[in-house]
């Protein structure tokens, strides 16, 4: 999620170097078993190096998330 941007400009995604180096305010990473190692390893490290915080909630499946929430 990115706050305070021109919503009239059409974007298919957020490209940091096309946005003058600005990163999103919130990053939500949807993981699958095949990408989980990359998402929680290299990508997480890059996000932290850029000062973007860290992954707050990691769940293996929708079922696990629902069970944690109830």
Task: Label this structure with key terms.
70 residues; globular; 30% helix; 0% strand; mainly alpha
Task: Work out the radius of gyration.
Answer: 15 Å
Order of helices and strands: HHH
Gross geometry: globular
Biggest pleated sheet = none
Count of strand segments? 0
> Which parts are unreliable, with pLDDT below 50 for 5 consecutive residues or more?
none
| Total number of helices | 3
Compute the separation of the termini in Å. 26 Å
Average pLDDT score: 78
Instruction: Kindly state the percentage of residues in helix.
Output: 25-40%
Strand content: under 5%
Q: Would you tell me the structural class of the helices and strands?
A: mainly alpha
Fold and architecture overview:
- The protein has helices at residues 36-40, 42-49, 62-69.
- It is globular and about 40 Å long.
- The mean pLDDT is 78.
- The chain has 70 residues and is mainly α.
- It is built from three helices and no strands.
- The longest helix has 8 residues, at 42-49.
- Helix content is 30%, strand content 0%.
């Amino acid at each position: 999620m990115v706050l305070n941007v021109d919503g009239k400009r059409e974007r298919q995604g957020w490209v940091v170097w096309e946005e003058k180096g600005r990163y999103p305010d919130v990053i939500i990473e949807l993981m699958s078993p095949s990408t989980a190692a990359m998402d929680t390893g290299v990508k997480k490290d890059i996000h932290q190096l850029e000062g973007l915080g860290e992954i707050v909630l990691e769940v293996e499946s929708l079922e696990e998330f629902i069970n944690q929430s109830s």
